[in-house]
Write a structure and sequence with these properties.
Helix content: 55-70%
Number of strands: 0
Structural class: mainly alpha
Strand content: under 5%
Number of helices: 4
Largest sheet: none
Oligomer: single chain
Distance between the termini: 33 Å
Order of helices and strands: HHHH
Length: about 80
């Protein structure tokens, strides 16, 4: 199950990166909002069960902000809220 969770985290992160590029997400606050949005959309279509806790998933994805910002080459001039 840990391997699947790891895979799902990486897949969700790739989706967050793709949407973040499309939507022009350049701040950590907007990134955190996007993480929540992506997880809730997967929950609403049944890919994440309603009774499955997502707090750890959200925390892991939020912790990937620096990786996201590096991928988008945002630089250090962006506010870290």
């Amino acid at each position: 199950m840990t391997e699947m969770l790891s895979y799902n985290i990486e897949t969700l992160f790739e989706e967050v990166v793709s949407r973040g590029r499309e939507q022009g997400v350049t701040t950590q606050v907007a990134y955190d909002d996007l993480v929540e949005e992506v997880i809730e959309e997967h929950r609403s279509i049944g890919e994440i069960h309603d009774d499955e806790p997502t707090e750890d998933m959200e925390e892991q994805l939020r912790g990937m902000w620096s990786r996201y910002s590096e991928m988008l080459d945002l630089g250090s001039d962006q506010p870290q809220l």
